[in-house]
Amino acid sequence: MEIQTIGVVGAGQMGNGIAHVLALAGYDVTLNDISQEALDDALAKVRTNMDRQVTREKISAEERDGALARISTTLTLTDLGPSDLIIEAATERETVKTAIFEDLVPHLKPDTILSSNTSSISITRLASRTDRPEKFMGFHFMNPVPVMQLVELIRGIATDEPTFKACASVVDKLGKTASTAEDFPAFIVNRILMPMINEAVYTLYEGVGNVKSIDMAMKLGANHPMGPLELADFIGLDTCLAIMNVLHDGLADTKYRPCPLLTKYVEAGWLGRKTERGFYDYRGEAPVPTR
Question: Which residues are annotated as catalytic?
Answer without folding.
Answer: 119, 140, 152, 190
